[in-house]
Amino acid sequence: MKIASHSDITEAVQPLLSPECEHSAEDRGAPNGSISGAVFNISTTMIGAGIMSVPATMKVLGIVPGFLVILLVALVTDVTVEFMLRYTSSGKSTTYAGMMGESFGSVGSLAVKICVLITNFGILIIYLIILGDVLCGNESNGTTHLGVLQEWFGIHWWTSRAFTLLIIALFIMLPLVMLRRVDSLRYTSAISILLALVFLAICSSMAFSALLSGKTQSLRMVPDFSLVTVLDLFTTIPVFVTGFGFHVNVHPIRAEIGKVTHMGKAVKISLVICVVVYFAIGFFAYLLFGDSIMPDVLVNFDQNSNTHVGRLLNDIVRISYALHLALVFPIMNYSLRINIDELIFSNKNKPPLASDTPRFVSLTLSLLVLTYLVAVAIPNIWYFFQFLGSTTVVCTSFIFPAAIVLRDMHGISKTKDRVIAISVIVFAVGTSGIAIWTNLNPGDG
User: Fold this and answer.
1) Which of 31-45, 100-114, 296-310 has the lowest mean pLDDT?
2) Rounded (10°) CA dihedral 3, 8, 14, 16
3) Does 13 fall in a domain?
4) Which parts pass through the membrane (predicted)?
């Protein structure tokens, strides 16, 4: 099925910036974001914590269905982002919440803000928890897993979770979250993608090495229904929905790239990159660990090796992934900060957030401090992560964009668009409902 291309988007584009944002543009100069910068930022948003759970989905789905599900979610993502770009171009709003407000009033705007707040704040906390687990270890089911720092230097106060995360927050994350333009993060995003590729390269090299020595696991091409049920298959879809869910960053990146056609090109390039990365990591990690693979693939690398090279590779994998998440953090924080500011400071007389230094600094510091405190106080909130892809993420990624098309306040939807939108909503609601039911009633599977 051919999806309407971005060239079909009306050329009568409204000004990218609202009146309050125009003032900000004068301060910062005209939009000058590059396509490459947009690709790096979009790809970094997608290749986040979801990368850890992809290999486990291959164990459930099998290789062939796993690839098809990745491709399906990527195609639906492309469709829904195009919907957002088209209706942003035809409307006056330059934010996700504003776009929903044009179609559904204050209720729609509030729904987006709440979903973004829950999703992004939860993901930021999870990123810090993962960093703590990788560097400082954790305890699961009575088993203690040492972190990289504890393996290297032993257990001390300065290798504890609280102190290590404090140092990371102060010296890595704080300078990045203080940047006021999302395009300024393009270099750290590029490094983040490079670290993800390092993770992939090492995982694939270890898999090839195991293959040559005859130590690889047998791969399952299709689901083994003696081990899983049909309903279990649906629990994997939210993992990919969470992975591809960058919709909350569409508007900030679009506003800085300038041309909507460039944004469409950047989205397609990013989706291709992420499909390749997700499938490759899922395939090679599954080939390496087989049915012993854990929901968090990093746990599989947290194993003692008989060789110095093996231990070194395990440490490089974990450290590269930890640094990757640390560099993804500011991208997710950017959209969260904008939505919280829009939720709290809705007074139009206030200057844009980026040009109001006291408001920008106080909100940024408050978010970082709160995220740090929750991550230290609650070392394990994986149950929350499991439901993100089935609830708030699926709303912002699939349901809300499709609903805007069906509402069609600007009269630009075609019959094909409405059919696709209905199909997206049915797909999103159906798979998420089954996933939630299966997670709440595991004994029924």
Assistant:
1) 296-310
2) 50
3) no
4) 38-57, 63-85, 106-130, 162-179, 191-213, 225-248, 269-289, 321-340, 360-378, 384-406, 418-440
- Rounded average pLDDT over 409-421: 92
3-state secondary structure of 45: helix
Q: How far apart are CA 81 and CA 42, in angstroms?
A: 12
φ/ψ (deg, to 5) at 144: -95, 125
Q: Tell whether 404 is covered by a domain.
A: yes
Q: If 0-12 CB within 10 Å is exposed, 13-18 middle and 19+ buried, where does residue 191 land?
A: middle
Q: Which residues contact 442 (CB under 8 A, 6 or more apart)?
A: none
Which is more confident, 391 or 407?
A: 407
In a domain? residue 71 = yes
Residue type, 349: N
- CATH code of the domain covering residue 376: 1.20.1740.10
pLDDT at 385: 56
C-alpha torsion sign, points 128, 385, 299, 156: positive
C-alpha distances (whole Å) from 282 to each of 200, 227, 285 are 9, 19, 5
279's CB contacts (< 8 A; 6+ apart) are 66, 67, 70
For residue 403, name the pLDDT band (cuts at 50, 70, 90). Answer: very high
The pLDDT assigned to 71 comes to 94
Provide DSSP, 167-185.
HHIIIIIHHHHT-S-GGGG
Supply 213's token pair: 């020595």
Residues 6+ apart with CB under 8 A from 400: 96, 100, 108, 111, 112, 115
Q: Which two tokens stand for residue 244?
A: 């591809």
Average pLDDT (183-212) is 84
Total number of domains constituting the chain? 1
Q: What residues have CB less than 8 Å from 19, skipping those under 6 apart?
A: none
pTM, to two decimals? 0.78
Gap between the Cα atoms of 146 and 159, Å rounded: 11
Question: Residue 88 sits in which domain range?
Answer: 30-444
Residue 138's DSSP bridge partners are: 145
Write down the pLDDT at residue 199.
83
